[in-house]
Each structure stands twice: as structure tokens, then as C-alpha cells.
Design brief:
Elements lengths: L21 H21 L2 H10 L9 H12 L2 E5 L5 H9 L2 E5 L16 H8 L6 H14 L7 H13 L2 E4 L2 E4 L2 H4 L4 H7 L4 E4 L2 H5 L11 E5 L3 H6 L4 H11 L13
Parallel strand pairs: 1-2, 3-6, 5-6
Antiparallel strand pairs: 3-4
Bound molecules: fe (ii) ion.
The site of fe (ii) ion has 6 residues, from α5 and α8.
């Protein structure tokens, strides 16, 4: 969740449609063409199954309404365009309403491989496939519901559970790491890095540990949490997450594994 951005929101018209330029559609087309073979190799089955169900365009930026039409009968979720930056309060409220907030701009060529702030490629190509799955949809909705129950001062604790799972989570299939998180599946560089690089630390999924782990938004992640079994994430939605946050707070944050902590 970046604190500032050079991008401006694309404003939808009365029908909720956004008018993208030919160059913006071309950025989507090129990202899509690059990520499809990469996700086939590195992404988790749950992601690939969702991508299949959505049948999104390879050649132009899909409209949020098109995604809503696919998601609504599957999980009751919709996708709504929002400005490049929204606060945690609004973010949690939208998840609680089963509405996924999609930053509407698309990255420039300068940010093609890696972009700090979420753009429409990240939101649609990265996030919406998992929202076809009732388990991931319920977990996302739970984060929103819990977000409405915590004080704003506690938002940064709760958001780590979303960050290390829905955004940057890994899983294991047939003994191989696979990418689940939207920040991975939508990044030409970090998708490969998260699976193949010996550099990042890969830790076992543990809710309390995740809540205590600071992160940075502007670098490839130094730590990934690995769901050996995706059901562990779905069961986390049934935990007393308010009590988990209190426990994590009493234990305190882990020391950052990087030099300068920008957020988290
Ligand atoms: Fe995201």
C-alpha cells in the first residue's frame, strides 16, 4: 500500500466504463503475453483455474464490470475502479462489502517489470482469479470484516495477514513452490524471483508470525510465507483474528530483515 504515487486515477464514465488509450491497451497486451507462459510455469493451480474461468481479454484492458459479471455468480464479488491510492479504512470496508477495489490506471513502460503501487494489471490479472474461489473470496471478505472491527491504529497489523497471503503468498504443489499472491502473478520479475531465487527466505505459514513480520512495498520481498496446504489459509478465516492481533502486539514486531522499514 504505497504512500504516494505519480499516477492519477482513470475516471469511469456514467456506465462505469474507463476509456483507455491504444498505448495503455498495448501495455496490457504485452504484460498479458509475457505473464501467461510464466504463470503456467510458476503460479498455483488455484490461480490458474481462476484465470481460466475469467476468460479475460489478452488484447485490451478489461473493464471492471466484465469481471463483476464473471465473479458475481461464482462468489458474489464485484470489482470497482478506485483512485491509485485509497486508505486502509476504505479498503477494508470494500472487502467487507465483497467489492474489490481496483486501481484503474495501468503502469507506464518505465515501470513495466515491477511497480510499487497496484495498477489495473495487478488488480485484474493478479487478484481477480483467486476471487473466483469461494475459499479465497471468504478469506478476503473476512479481512474486510475484521478491518471494520479494529481501530485504525491496528490496521497495519491486520494488513500483514493480507500482504503475506493474498498479495505475496506461496504454496507447494508436488514438492515445488508455486505463486499464489497477486503481487507475484502480476509481476514479470518477482513471479520468477519468488520461486527460483535462493535469496528470499521462505517461512512456514503461521498467522501470529505473519502479523509480527514487517514488510516493504518497494522491493522484491525478502520473506515469503508458504502455505503447505491452502486449506490452512481458509481455516485462518475462522480464527479469532482480533485475539491474534492482540497476541502479536504483545509479542512485538520481528526485527526487519531489510535496512529501512517504510511500512508495515
Ligand atoms: Fe494487491
Amino acid at each position: 500500500m504505497p504512500k504516494n504515487t505519480n499516477y492519477t486515477a482513470k475516471i469511469p464514465d456514467d456506465q462505469g466504463l474507463i476509456d483507455y488509450s491504444a498505448e495503455e491497451h498495448a501495455v496490457w497486451r504485452d504484460l498479458y503475453a509475457q505473464q501467461i507462459p510464466s504463470t503456467q510455469k510458476y503460479a498455483a493451480d488455484a490461480y490458474l483455474k481462476g484465470l481460466d474461468l475469467l476468460d479475460m481479454s489478452a488484447n485490451r484492458i478489461p473493464q471492471c464490470l466484465e469481471l463483476t459479471e464473471h465473479l458475481m455468480p461464482l462468489t458474489g464479488w464485484s470489482v470497482a475502479p478506485v483512485p491509485a491510492l485509497i486508505g486502509f479504512g476504505r479498503f477494508f470496508n470494500m472487502l467487507a462489502e465483497k467489492t474489490f477495489p481496483a486501481a484503474s490506471f495501468i503502469r507506464s513502460r518505465a515501470d513495466y517489470d515491477y511497480i510499487e503501487e497496484p495498477d489495473i494489471f495487478h488488480e485484474i490479472f493478479g487478484h481477480t482469479p483467486l476471487l473466483t474461489d469461494p475459499g479465497f473470496a471468504h478469506f478476503s471478505n473476512t479481512i474486510g470484516n475484521i478491518g471494520q472491527q479494529v481501530e485504525p491504529a491496528d490496521y497495519s497489523w491486520l494488513i500483514r495477514l493480507y500482504w503475506f497471503t493474498i498479495e505475496f503468498g506461496l504454496t507447494v504443489e508436488n514438492g515445488h513452490y508455486k505463486a499464489l499472491g497477486s503481487g507475484l502473478t502480476s509481476s514479470p520479475t518477482e513471479l520468477i524471483y519468488s520461486i527460483d531465487s535462493p535469496v528470499p527466505e521462505r517461512r512456514e505459514f503461521n498467522v501470529i508470525d505473519i502479523l509480527r513480520t514487517p514488510y516493504r512495498i518497494d522491493i522484491h520481498q525478502p520473506i515469503y510465507f508458504v502455505l503447505e496446504n491452502i486449506d490452512d489459509l481458509f481455516q485462518a478465516a475462522d480464527r479469532d483474528l482480533l485475539a491474534d492481533i492482540r497476541q502479536a502486539q504483545s509479542l512485538g514486531l520481528f526485527e526487519p530483515s531489510y535496512e529501512c522499514q517504510l511500512t508495515g
